[in-house]
Design goal:
Layout (H helix, E strand, L loop, with lengths): L6 H17 L2 H10 L4 H10 L20 H10 L6 H13 L3 H13 L4 E4 L15 E4 L3 E12 L6 E7 L5 E7 L5 E7 L5 E13 L3 E4 H40 L1 E2 L2 E2 L4 H27 L5 H29 L10 H12 L6 H11 L1
Helix pairs in contact: 1-3, 1-4, 4-7, 5-6, 5-7, 7-8, 7-9, 7-10, 8-9, 9-10, 9-11
């Protein structure tokens, strides 16, 4: 694995850091969270910089970058706690559609790359934790196309999506992937804020009628597409977490250099230096495993790729908890308030474990593959 950015990756990361520093300040981030709505200007800025079409083929309006480019981009987004639906739409949604046929790619990928379409993968069902196989959400064939019934929950940025990519159980028990436009009759959307200031939604689907061309994939192709979406999303999330840890460590160092006790900066106390060292080691381990995760996206051995992704996600969750908890402790009483950035980073790094398969889920995968 090459741990050094290419010149193009470095330039993109530098440009993105400048954008994030200008447009995702503490006040701006909080203002967006208060509305609970997607900021069209911020979303457009990400599209203009190429973030949304990063790995989408140039044939479909993207930039055609290699999967490794996810790392520098999502590290920077993690540093700024960018909560826009980049991972659900531009990573997971694009990866899912890319695993479908050319008709689906041509129809959806250009609009995803431009930011005109926001998609979200709706695959989790109530009471089934992280199981990816649809069971209670079912699609029946009709003369005009499909009729969809069931429920999906924890749809990441589901209310902001213009289209949901819904997994359903077909007439013969096979997996179907269907594109459901927002506003379709029979879809009830319940939007909910999450711990970290992002959003998720529950979709209740009652007799939703769809045309025949709503079908994106079925059977083994659909299973593979969904697996690919989750693998790419997890790799991006690991990079996002590493970036958040990096920035939180910087914030904590700045605080300890400024805050004084007994006439000396807190950073001069050896015991606190040890805690900072622990944070640094944890952050570096998480960053190293983020490289492993993006490397898994080009791994030809499917079993090894699953092992790499699960291991990286485990480390992102573990290191995230450690760095976040130590940061709060080192900020003392101020770390428990809602007035500092540290609290926002703590919440984001806490929720990383729950997204796309928690620690127990990743351990189960590793046990299965051992």
């Amino acid at each position: 694995m090459d741990f050094i950015y290419t010149e193009e990756q470095r330039m993109l990361a530098d440009s993105l850091r400048r954008l994030v520093d200008q447009s995702w300040t503490y006040a701006q981030r909080r203002a967006r969270q208060a509305t609970g709505k997607l900021d069209a200007k911020a979303w457009g800025a990400l599209a203009e910089l190429g973030v949304l079409g990063l790995t989408i083929s140039q044939d479909f309006g993207g930039f055609g970058e290699v999967p490794a480019s996810l790392l520098p981009v999502h590290v920077e987004l993690g540093r700024g706690l960018v909560s826009e639906p980049v991972i659900p739409s531009a990573v997971m949604g694009a990866a899912l559609i890319d695993a479908c046929d050319d008709a689906a790619r041509g129809r959806w990928l250009p609009d995803i790359a431009s930011g005109e379409s926001i998609v979200s993968v709706a695959y989790q069902e109530p009471g089934r934790r992280y199981d990816t196989a649809p069971q209670d959400c079912r699609a029946a064939k009709t003369a005009e196309g499909w009729r969809l019934n069931g429920a999906k929950h924890l749809v990441w940025h589901g209310a902001a999506a213009t289209t949901w990519l819904v997994s359903a159980r077909g007439p013969d028990g096979q997996t179907l992937l269907l594109a459901v436009p927002a506003g379709t009759a029979g879809v009830d959307v319940t939007d909910t804020p999450t711990l970290d200031g992002a959003r998720c939604a529950r979709l209740d689907l009652d007799g939703v009628t769809l045309p025949a061309d709503a079908l994106l994939a079925e059977g083994g192709v659909a299973d593979h597409a969904l697996e690919q979406a989750l693998r790419w999303g997890t790799a991006a999330l690991c990079s996002h977490a590493a970036g958040a840890m990096e920035r939180l460590l910087e914030i904590t160092v700045e605080y300890l250099k400024t805050r004084k006790q007994f006439g000396q900066p807190l950073a001069s106390f050896q015991a606190l230096q040890h805690r900072l060292a622990e944070m640094l080691v944890a952050k570096e381990l998480a960053l190293s495993m983020a490289y492993v995760a993006v490397a898994a996206l080009t791994e030809t051995d499917a079993v090894q790729a699953r092992r790499m992704i699960a291991s990286a996600k485990l480390e992102a969750a573990r290191a995230g908890r450690q760095v976040a908890q130590l940061a709060v402790q080192l900020h003392g009483g101020m770390g428990m308030t809602d007035e500092l950035d540290v609290g926002d980073y703590f919440k984001r790094l806490t929720i990383v474990d729950q997204l796309l398969g928690d620690t127990a889920e990743q351990l189960a995968v590793l046990q299965e593959l051992s």
